[in-house]
Amino acid sequence: MKPVEELCLACGLCCDGSLFDLVKLEGTDDARKLKALGLPVAVSRGKAPVARFPQPCAALCEDRSCRLYDNRPWQCRAFECGVFKEAKAGRMTFAAALRLVRQARRRADKIRELLRELGDTDEHRAVGERFHRTSERMAAGGADAAAMNTFADLSLAVHHFNLQAFKKFYTKAEATAPGAKPGA
Ligand code: SF4
Ligand code: SF4
């Protein structure tokens, strides 16, 4: 296994709902086959319907490998985050890339821990969606001082994670349209 592939097995952030909320399918993807393989593909309503499936991805295994690696959608084949690209090109050492990935993972884990403390235990939803929902709940009022303090910690944790994501993980294309996992 190449070191950069080991990096992804130590990370998983582009599949587990930390960096993205969903994966859009492209024309070359076989939506029916992907659905049969266990991905909950649904078509969005609107003027330009898009087939997509939510993150955390149903194909992500405990060891952060992809259960559908050989059949994964085009976006998943094409996507390489900034850290991966830098390490692959030799502009960053593998050790430095691993440190960044581990730091980002710790931050994402902290966000999930704080969300749980605030009563959001919906681990099957993307972090961004859960934070948005929790923010709306807090803005509606009724939270006590302890919960408000936890929410302040959560907001700070999300801010630090997003800062690192925009600086190191998203590349130019994603920085303009975060949310969906993009291709190259
Ligand atoms: S975010 Fe980057 S390092 Fe992490 S799994 Fe995705 S491509 Fe690999
Ligand atoms: S299909 Fe595989 S590569 Fe794509 S989001 Fe799911 S786990 Fe990640």
Secondary-structure blueprint of this entry?
Blueprint lengths: L2 H7 L12 E3 L6 H6 L5 E2 L7 E4 L19 H5 L3 H7 L5 H24 L9 H13 L5 H25 L2 H5 L3 E2 L3
Parallel strand pairs: 1-4
Antiparallel strand pairs: 1-3, 2-3
Helix pairs in contact: 4-5, 5-6, 5-7
Bound molecules: iron/sulfur cluster (SF4) (2 copies).
Oligomeric state, counting identical vs distinct chains: single chain
Order of helices and strands: HEHEEHHHHHHE
Strand order of the biggest β-sheet: 2-3-1-4
Cα gyration radius (Å):
17 Å
Going by helix content, strand content and strand pairing, the class is mainly alpha
User: Which cofactors or ions or other ligands sit in this model?
Assistant: iron/sulfur cluster
Query: What is the CA-CA span between the terminal residues?
Result: 22 Å
Instruction: Tell me, briefly, the overall form.
Output: globular
Q: Report helical residue fraction.
A: 40-55%
Percent strand: 5-15%
Write a structural description.
The chain has 184 residues and is mainly alpha-helical. Helices cover 50% and strands 6% of the residues. The protein contains 8 helices and 4 strands, in the order αβαββααααααβ. The chain has helices spanning 3-9, 31-36, 74-78, 82-88, 94-117, 127-139, 145-169, 172-176; strands at 22-24, 42-43, 51-54, 180-181. A 4-stranded mixed β-sheet has the order 2-3-1-4, with no helix packed on it. α4 (82-88) packs antiparallel against α5 (94-117) and α5 packs parallel to α6. The chain is globular, with a radius of gyration of 17 Å. The mean pLDDT is 93. One iron/sulfur cluster (SF4) is lined by residues 15, 23, 57, 59-60, 66, 68, 72, 76.
